[in-house]
Predict the 3D structure of the following.
Amino acid sequence: MITKEEALHRVEQRVSKLRKLVEHAIEARSPIHEVERATFTELMDVGFELLTAFVADQGNGNMGLTTQHQGKALRRLRGKRERCYRSIYGPLEIGRYVYGTREGQKIDYVPLDARLGLPAGAVSYVLEDWLERMCVKDAFRDSVESLVALLGPRAKLSVDTAEEHSRQMARHAASFRMSQAIPPADEEGTLLVATADGTTVPMRRTSSKEAEPSNSDAGGDRERGQARQMAYVGAVYTIDRFSRTADDVIDDLLRKKRAKDRPSPKHKRAWAEMTRPGDRERKGLLIHGPTDLFAELAVDCAGRDPNRQKPLICLLDGEKQLWNLQEDWLPRAVQILDIYHASNRLRKVAESFHSPDSPDIAPFVEHNLRLLLEGRVGTVIRSFAHLIALRPLTVEKRKRVRETITYYQNNREHMKYDEYLAAGYPIGSGVAEGGCAHVVKDRMDTTGMHWTLEGAPAMLQLRTLYLNGDWADFVEHRIQREQVALYSQAA
């Protein structure tokens, strides 16, 4: 590695080159985008030399032939050891002395690594941050290609690197959530709401060495030959009461007219889980995703309303497993079947009795939705049963209507919408349903996607943190935890 003085001399040369580049661009009347691109490339080289100068100034970590570290006598091992540090400016080779008990044994202490706060792996925290910011939004390959296009070929990133760092970062997600402060009480709404919904993720075929998910999480097992597994998105937020009428909700759902003065969720925190093999303290176990999700929701609810003064609302999609978990983890909650799921079935029933383009579909849906919102679920059930008896239907259409009847019967106690609306309770879990689309589908279920049992949960957790607006704080948390683990010091 070159000396600090040599590196700073190179900086001077590059700055001079940069100045000449701009002067030439002025004379040539170059377009601004060409100047912008050329100067950025040169500034990256300047940054590399400055980083080189900084590292060179820190020495080589030579603490003498012997040193004490954490109460242990260590000796300097033969020769300097090189390690690669892959910065945003390109790879930097760092030579340093290392210490251990004897040659051939593990390295116990690397003073320069601790001084510089180097990460466990070769990729810098900054480069990792930039890469994973892209990966939580786009496919790994697309993200790598985009970042390499920006930083240049010296970035030397790969899809395998991106995937590995995604998994490494996600191991700090749970501890970050536990460290988050409770939202200020004076910024909260009058109602506490927990909601959850599920969707499927395309999976790679598991090998014999990987744990299989439970049948309850298989999510239909196969779709066009592709294995799929359930992922669950939940959220906790507060919101103010907002009394509405059936007409208000119908305008919102069917006519897309947002109700005037409708309150917005406050301090929404989403989370996502799926069944996966355990690691570290739960190694060898199969972690049940929905249970972990509800445990997280329960912790959030307890933290935000420790004295249980706020009414607690739980909005779900009707899946029996989720209602059971709600009773286990949030037993005091008012149980409400998400109106979006209840109303979506009405159109399927309408298309069983009418042709898809029939003008009678819209009035049918609106009429029955109004009955549901008025708390007349029994009337809707009896009406559908009566229509089945009167109308000649195909086997498939008859099955579809009967499934809706069963769905309403099973969730009737959670469909007292007239009471909920009068009390000002929310009745739609758009937060969770939208989360399934935004967190899961938009990133994890596009063409060609297929995930492993380790990679999928990692991406779910990272993506929720990013969408919650917590990314910068999470990255700093991850750095601090790794620095403490590596060097018993904060970064």
